[in-house]
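Async update (no meeting this week)

Hi team, since we skipped the sync, here's where things stand on the single-chain job. The sequence we agreed to prioritize is pasted below, unchanged from the tracker. I ran it this morning and attached the output directly underneath so nobody has to dig for it. Comments welcome in thread, and please keep replies under the output.
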Amino acid sequence: MRARSRLQVAAALAFALNALLPGNTWAQFPDRPIRFVLGFGTGGPTDVIARTLADQLSKELGQRVVVENKTGASGNLATQAVAIADADGYTYLIGATPLAVNHSLFPDFPVRFGKDLMAVAAIGANANVLVVRPSLNVKTVAEFMQRAKAQRDAVSYATVGVGSSSHLAGVAFDLAAGSTMLPVGYRGGGEALKDLLGGRVDAWFAPIPSVLGSVQAGDLVALATTGPRRDPQLPAIPTMAESGFPGFDIRLWVGVFARTGVAADTIREMQHVTARAMQSSEMQSALEVQGIAPMSMSPAAFDAFVRDEIKRWQTVVAAVRK
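Output:
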């Protein structure tokens, strides 16, 4: 009996020592603050979601999760910061649609998904809505397409920068419709909305929360949403697919990413605590306010989703470069 007891004690000590070895970080994870890096400014939908998630994960993990806004280069500065961080599981990217777009938009950018970055957890996605000024006198996507095809630059549409979802949705529309609209760049959504309401631009593939009040007041006409299903905020408005553009799916999606090389146990822990945080009333409320629908998928499915997004944007970005 004494021999068996000694063996049990030895086994327990061996397990404890093994957990303290440098390669076995999961047993101690996390023992210091975790950093979320995102390539968007403060106050926007992605920033709000990142900070709410950080607060919930801080509670789940018992360590602070801090958010760092590292803007510039269409999100590439934030992406690179995470890709070159230590592979210790303490730095994560809150990535979004531009992560996939940039693969084609910046072919010389050295960071690549699958090689330098890996998917950790999906958060959510929101569709845009094609809205037009009432004086354009169109009520359907078909009428809008007819107007846009009348001649080159016959219709202008607002964008908030090259490579933004509002810009790429317009390019995708032109490719599918055979039209050539005129993109008009703005520094932000507030300026775009002001000019659209003032009649100085014709249309906008806009984030739904940005224009919902104007649509409900009748100041703008909503023609179609850009997601795969009708949006609960505008249930009476058809999708682009329902309006004669099958497969049209332009959404801003958001997820958590890590640099490759982070220990598998650490990634699994982050996946699990993120899933729990997503169920909190705080996260659900933040997503609803920002018009973002939660994305529920396994890590493997999210990885495949991002890879498909990268391929899908190649054709659209090629058209931007012409």
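Quick observations from my side:
The chain has a mean pLDDT of 89.
The longest strand covers residues 117-132.
Reply here if anything looks off.
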